[in-house]
Structure formats: structure tokens, C-alpha cells
């Protein structure tokens, strides 16, 4: 019996060692995987994890996402894509498939590119053509906060498996109906809750529901969606926000604070009336965290007592355009987007990058972020 006890003890000790080794191996495998955000032409984004040694194409196809592909040998160029953020090994290919000049601009072949870090990859095809679609999630409403007479902030629980890029939005179902409204995240991608900033329209379908609903009420959404998201930061940034178009910039600023951004970041935030000016505490907090960040606000209404009046175009310091060596991000109603485009053209300034998102305050759900 004594010998049997010794055998059991030895067996249990070896089992404990084996379990520890398995945990270590699993941890190392997770540490070696890299997340790839596949951004499709129709705005849909799907996240896949690349295992050690996997190419972008291998990781996508393993999950049934059929991105454009033909030869798999770096010879045809069919899988050419743009890596917008992250480090990777471009692999081997012939000049006919990808030129040196193209590779220098961030183009890569999905069948050859192997991630060295998390990546954001723009795929030149619609998600439907690649046999994928936006993901559907179930969640619950946490709470609603009135920010002003015209604005609300609401919070949802973060469902398991959700990932998004700072600046993106989701299509949120209005409970009890078959209608949806689109809202940009104002929270940082890694947060344990999802925050949104919306305009409170008296007869708005979603804003009316939010005012009446109780915490814990079930909600559903699809996403993430949208090509308006923060790219790799290599030059100064100019953010232009109109009304609740501030929301995606709060998410972007959160990511910039997390990554200790050293580039100058300027924000011009314009609203129609004094009551529409919200989120200033959050902006002040980011100004304290980001040494290179500063913002100005402006109110368009003639009767406003705000020290700066007029539209955002009147309050952009020419120095912030950095002679065109600047990435401009603009989120606001269509007239604002068109006005900024016209102003830049009139000034003869062509930004290195110009990313825009237009939204309407009350309309059926459509690409872009809706306010109510």
C-alpha cells in the first residue's frame, strides 16, 4: 500500500507539471498571435487572429472569409491589399505582382504578408463578395445620462467577442421595432463598456426609447462598420467635429492617449447652439493626458454668448494644416463636410490624407452615423 501511495503521489506531481506546461504553452501561443482587422470596401470590418507563421490570407480563409486570392505564390497580384497599420513581413513575390514602389506605399500581398504585430488591412472588395458579413451581438443597456437639453450619452455592456477600430460605428436595433439607428463608439476599443453620444430629438425613435427604457434592457446590434477610423499616425492630425460627430473623436483620442502619441493633434468642435456643446470634460481630460493635443470650440448661432462663433472652417489655424503634411479627419453633417472640402480647395491645400464621415440627424439607417 505504501508503494501504491508513492506511485499516486508521483503521478499527481507529474500531472501538475503537465498542466503547468500546458498553461505556459497556451499563454505563449496567445502571445504570438496577432489580431488582423480586415476592412472591406462596404465598410464592414472583421477581426481574425493570425497564428504564428500564418499569412493574412491563411488567417482569413481559416475562418471562411474568402478574400480575393488566386495563385497563393506571390505571382499574380490578385490578393493585393493595403496595410494601413502595423508591422509585417512582406514575403516573397515577383515584380509583376507587386512593385517596389507599391510596397513602399503600404501595399502588400495577402498570400505572402505575415504579421509581426496587430494589423489593419484594407481589402479592395465588398464583404459580401468575400462571403462574410457584419457580426451580430446581443447586449444590455447600462444607463443613460443627459448631457444637455439636446444631447444624451448612453452605455451598453460590452458583449464577448466584440472588437472595433476607434472611429467606427454599429447599427443598433430599436427594441420593439424592425428599425435600426447607427451610432459611433465614443469609448476606447479596449474598454469593458460601450459608450455612445447622441442628439436627443423630441420625436426621435431611438432617443425616445432611451429616455424611457430601464437599465438591463436587452438590445442587439450589428458591426463594427465604417471606413472612418484612426489610421497609423505618422504626421500631425487635424480633427473636425460637428455636433454629435464628436463621438468617434473621443474614441480616437482614447486610443492616442493609450499609445502615447507624440504627433500634434488639433480638434475644432463646432455646434449649432450653446446647448449642443457637450463632452468638454472628456476633452479636457485628454488634453491633460496628451501633451500635443489642443482643441477649440465654436457655436454657429448668432445669438450665442460663446467666445468663438461661426463654422469650423473659420477657426482652423493655417499652421495646423502643416503645408498639407497633415491627416485630416472630419465627422459632421453633409453641409459641413462639403464646406471644409471647398475651403481646403480654395486655400490650395491638399492634405496627405482626408477621411470623412457624413451623418444625418434623423433619417432611416444608412452608411454613416445617425443621431436619433
Structure write-up:
It is a single chain. The chain is built from seven helices and 18 strands. It is an alpha/beta fold and 372 residues long. The chain has three domains: 34-129, Ubiquitin-like (UB roll) (Roll), CATH 3.10.20.30; 136-225, Beta Barrel (Elongation Factor Tu (Ef-tu), domain 3); 237-358, Rossmann fold, CATH 3.40.50.80. The strands form four sheets. It has a six-stranded antiparallel β-sheet. Helix 5 (247-258) runs parallel beside helix 6 (280-289). It is globular, with a radius of gyration of 24 Å.
The biggest sheet, with number of strands, parallel, antiparallel or mixed sense and barrel status, is: 6 strands, antiparallel
The tally of domains stands at 3
Q: Indicate the CATH class of the largest domain.
A: Alpha Beta
How many helices does DSSP assign? Answer: 7
Strand content: 25-35%
Instruction: Kindly report the average pLDDT value.
Output: 89
Report the end-to-end length measured between terminal Cα atoms: 75 Å
Beta strands, count: 18
Could you give the order of the helices and strands? HEEHEEHEEEEEEEEHEEHEHEEHE
Give the spatial strand order of the biggest sheet.
11-10-13-8-9-12
CATH superfamily descriptor of the largest domain: Nucleotide-binding domain of ferredoxin-NADP reductase (FNR) module
pLDDT < 50 stretches:
23-30, 363-372
Amino acid at each position: 500500500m505504501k508503494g501504491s501511495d508513492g506511485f499516486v503521489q508521483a503521478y499527481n506531481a507529474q500531472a501538475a507539471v503537465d498542466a503547468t506546461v500546458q498553461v505556459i504553452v497556451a499563454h505563449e501561443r496567445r502571445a504570438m498571435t496577432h489580431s488582423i482587422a480586415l476592412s472591406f470596401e462596404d465598410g464592414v470590418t472583421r477581426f481574425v487572429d493570425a497564428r504564428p507563421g500564418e499569412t493574412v490570407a491563411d488567417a482569413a480563409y481559416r475562418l471562411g472569409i474568402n478574400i480575393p486570392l488566386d495563385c497563393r505564390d506571390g505571382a499574380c497580384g490578385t490578393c493585393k491589399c493595403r496595410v494601413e497599420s502595423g508591422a509585417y513581413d512582406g514575403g516573397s513575390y515577383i515584380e509583376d505582382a507587386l512593385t517596389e514602389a507599391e510596397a513602399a506605399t503600404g501595399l502588400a500581398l495577402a498570400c505572402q504578408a505575415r504579421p509581426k504585430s496587430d494589423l489593419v488591412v484594407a481589402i479592395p472588395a465588398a464583404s459580401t463578395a468575400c462571403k462574410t458579413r457584419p457580426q451580430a451581438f446581443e447586449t444590455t443597456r447600462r444607463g443613460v445620462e443627459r448631457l444637455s437639453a439636446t444631447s444624451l450619452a448612453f452605455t451598453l455592456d460590452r458583449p464577448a467577442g466584440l472588437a472595433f477600430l476607434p472611429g467606427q460605428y454599429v447599427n443598433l436595433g430599436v427594441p420593439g421595432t424592425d428599425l435600426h439607428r447607427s451610432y459611433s463608439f465614443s469609448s476606447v476599443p479596449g474598454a469593458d463598456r460601450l459608450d455612445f453620444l447622441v442628439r436627443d430629438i423630441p420625436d426621435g425613435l431611438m432617443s425616445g426609447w432611451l429616455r424611457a427604457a430601464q437599465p438591463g434592457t436587452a438590445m442587439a446590434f450589428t458591426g463594427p462598420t465604417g471606413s472612418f477610423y484612426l489610421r497609423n499616425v505618422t504626421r500631425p492630425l487635424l480633427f473636425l467635429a460637428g455636433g454629435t460627430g464628436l463621438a468617434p473623436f473621443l474614441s480616437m483620442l482614447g486610443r492616442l492617449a493609450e499609445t502615447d502619441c507624440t504627433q500634434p493633434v488639433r480638434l475644432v468642435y463646432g455646434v449649432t447652439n450653446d446647448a449642443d456643446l457637450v463632452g468638454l470634460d472628456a476633452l479636457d481630460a485628454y488634453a491633460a493626458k496628451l501633451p500635443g493635443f489642443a482643441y477649440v470650440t465654436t457655436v454657429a448661432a448668432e445669438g450665442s454668448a460663446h467666445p468663438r462663433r461661426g463654422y469650423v472652417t473659420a477657426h482652423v489655424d493655417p499652421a495646423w494644416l502643416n503645408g498639407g503634411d497633415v491627416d485630416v479627419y472630419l465627422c459632421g453633417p453633409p453641409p459641413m463636410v462639403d464646406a471644409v472640402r471647398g475651403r481646403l480647395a480654395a486655400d490650395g491645400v491638399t492634405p496627405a490624407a482626408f477621411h470623412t464621415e457624413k451623418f444625418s440627424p434623423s433619417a432611416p439607417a444608412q452608411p454613416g452615423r445617425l443621431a436619433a
